[in-house]
Design brief:
Blueprint (H helix, E strand, L loop, with lengths): L33 H18 L5 H8 L6 E5 L5 H6 L1 H4 L4 H7 L6 E8 L4 H21 L7 E5 L5 H8 L2 E9 L10 E7 L10 E7 L6 H18 L17
Parallel strand pairs: 1-3, 2-3, 2-4
Antiparallel strand pairs: 4-5, 5-6
Length: about 250
């Protein structure tokens, strides 16, 4: 039996091919169909789970070893997940032990890469290695010196300023779990900051978001990040003054 589709829904059906957003799902009376209602509740549960997920430091550490870089295990000033959600300011700063840990590695480098749980450790656990497999060879081939890779628990984006400054890196690149959406609980974000130092605010950074297999693929994300890093070094800046003029980057 053919399902009747409201006339106002029909033109939107073709857009479903390009997005996982909930469009053209139809309705039953004044509500949405049961299947879509249950899918929405499941997505909401996945988003909540992602917020409370934990960084799989053991597995990530093992996977990172093939990059042949020292690995630092750092922590913000947050003591637990509840405090993380209630006190964003504490997630932006390293605790004292972590600050001391950096002192032994402050030899200067071009790029400091940080892997931070953020609001979805699930995204970090699932997508970080795939992205770095595509990105790090580009950086190394371009002659850029990497600082030790940092694994950071209970961190926010700005914690990269403390780490980059502590490592005396020219540029910080933080890979962090983004706030889960109802169609993407596994989205990874990349934030880069030229000349990182404590006290910087968001206009000093560039962001590449929605990095995941069903969003911006690892290869495309790596090329976009690499382009921005090169431009940041050429112009000695990042943030609102650094525009992404690379255009659409193909899989190549």
């Amino acid at each position: 039996m053919k399902r009747n589709i409201p006339h106002e829904i029909e033109p939107l059906k073709a857009l479903q091919e390009f997005t996982s957003a909930r469009i053209a799902i139809g309705r039953v009376g004044t509500s949405i169909p049961l299947k879509q209602s249950l899918e929405f509740k499941l997505a909401h549960a996945h988003a909540r789970d992602a917020v409370y997920s934990e960084l799989n430091s053991v597995k990530l550490t093992g996977s990172l070893k093939h990059f042949e870089q020292p690995i630092l295990h750092l922590h913000s000033q947050v003591t637990d997940r509840r405090q993380y959600l209630q006190r964003p300011d504490l997630g932006r700063k390293l605790d004292e032990n972590s600050l001391n840990e950096l002192k032994g590695y402050s030899n200067g480098s071009d790029i400091a890469i940080m892997i931070v749980d953020g609001l979805s450790a699930t995204a970090v656990n699932e997508n970080t290695i795939g992205l770095l497999d595509a990105l790090i060879p580009l950086l190394v081939a371009n002659g850029l010196k990497l600082a030790p890779i940092s694994l950071v628990e209970q961190g926010r984006v700005a914690i990269g300023d403390d780490i980059g400054y502590g490592l005396k890196a020219k540029l910080s690149l933080i890979l962090i779990g983004e706030r889960p959406g109802l169609s993407s609980a596994d989205s990874l974000g990349a934030y880069l900051t030229y000349n990182p130092k404590p006290g910087l605010t968001d206009e000093s950074r560039n962001c590449v978001s929605n990095i995941r297999p069903k969003g911006l693929t690892y290869k495309k994300a790596a090329k976009k990040i690499f382009y921005l890093i090169n431009e940041a070094f050429k112009r000695k800046l990042s943030g609102v003054e650094l525009k992404d003029n690379a255009g659409l980057i193909s899989e190549g």
